[in-house]
Task: inverse folding
């Protein structure tokens, strides 16, 4: 049962507006979203939910539930992403953020890091004028003006061994163009494209499933952004289907789950501190609070693309190094360090 998953591409094709359709038949959109990302394993889903989804997609259960023998993680060098919500290579990532939360900086760093590893980057320009995209353009190999131009570029590039990172705005998702492109590429046997979906208008924050079913979702956090804890990717609510089943090292999964548990409790305690001060922390929870505070600080990271503004040298950290550092923090190995010493660093 561990390697069973929903046929997300089929759902995209058959039920474009899955949020409304799911709600109309009595399903919670959040539940459907969690099933699509793998946050809720198919084996633990209610039978009525699976049957309802199959009915919406007008397909059999055998078509809706597929066996995924192996999926590959795309490592980015960005600590919070690789540990908590890894990219599925060849999958689709949705960025959920309002303007000012730093989603374009994360996208720029992603482009920068992966170009160093031979990835080819494509950005489809959105309708309208967005001056904030100017800093992203130098990091892009190809700027596309239409979905047909994007298709042509990808097809012409598919003969090379380079993997392609394609980014587009939500407006092209709403028109159906993006999913039509993915379907065309699938029919043509082109599987070396990882898609990044962003929303320059910030409307995604107000919807439960702003992009439909996805393999990976990065939720950006207003509180982290307000406190300049960048990248402001929420480690608790961001998720990826690669974290389910036997797709990743079990040590990665164990550390990720322990880190989420620590951060959840830390956030609860922090809310208490904001109202009543440090003295409100129970003595038995003081250690939890301090370790959670250090872990949150460690997940900040100096970016290469921001060096000119921050005057801090960018850092890329491998997943194994992140796992080791987080284990150290959780187990108390960094208890003697100040929060400032682990803020905006690469490794401990």
Result:
């Amino acid at each position: 049962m561990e390697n069973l998953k929903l046929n997300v591409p089929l759902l995209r094709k058959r039920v474009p507006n899955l949020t409304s359709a799911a709600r109309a038949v009595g399903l919670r959109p959040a539940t459907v979203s969690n099933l699509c990302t793998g946050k809720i394993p198919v084996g633990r889903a209610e039978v009525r939910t699976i049957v309802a989804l199959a009915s919406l997609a007008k397909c059999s259960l055998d078509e809706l539930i597929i066996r995924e023998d192996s999926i590959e993680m795309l490592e980015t060098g960005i600590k919070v992403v690789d540990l908590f919500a890894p990219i599925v290579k060849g999958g689709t990532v949705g960025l959920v953020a309002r303007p000012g939360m730093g989603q374009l900086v994360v996208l720029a760093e992603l482009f920068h890091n992966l170009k160093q590893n031979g990835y080819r980057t494509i950005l489809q320009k959105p309708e309208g004028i967005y001056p904030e995209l100017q800093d992203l353009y130098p990091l892009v190999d190809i700027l596309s003006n239409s979905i047909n131009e994007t298709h042509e570029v990808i097809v012409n590039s598919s003969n090379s061994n380079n993997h392609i990172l394609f980014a587009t705005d939500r407006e092209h998702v709403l028109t159906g163009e993006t999913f039509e492109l993915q379907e065309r590429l699938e029919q043509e046997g082109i599987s070396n494209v990882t898609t990044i979906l962003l929303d320059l208008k910030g409307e995604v924050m107000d919807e439960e499933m702003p992009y439909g079913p996805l393999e990976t979702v990065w939720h950006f956090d207003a509180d982290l952004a307000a406190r300049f804890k960048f990248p402001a990717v929420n480690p608790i609510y961001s998720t990826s289907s690669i974290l389910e089943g036997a797709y990743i090292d079990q040590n990665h999964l164990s550390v990720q789950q322990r880190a989420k548990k620590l951060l959840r409790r830390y956030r609860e305690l922090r809310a208490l501190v904001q109202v009543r001060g440090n003295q409100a922390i129970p003595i038995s929870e003081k250690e939890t609070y301090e370790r959670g505070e250090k872990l949150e600080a460690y997940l900040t990271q100096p970016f290469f693309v921001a060096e000119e503004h921050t005057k801090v040298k960018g850092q890329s950290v491998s997943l194994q190094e992140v796992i080791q550092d987080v284990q150290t923090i959780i187990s108390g190995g960094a208890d003697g360090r100040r929060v400032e010493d682990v803020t905006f660093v690469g490794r401990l």
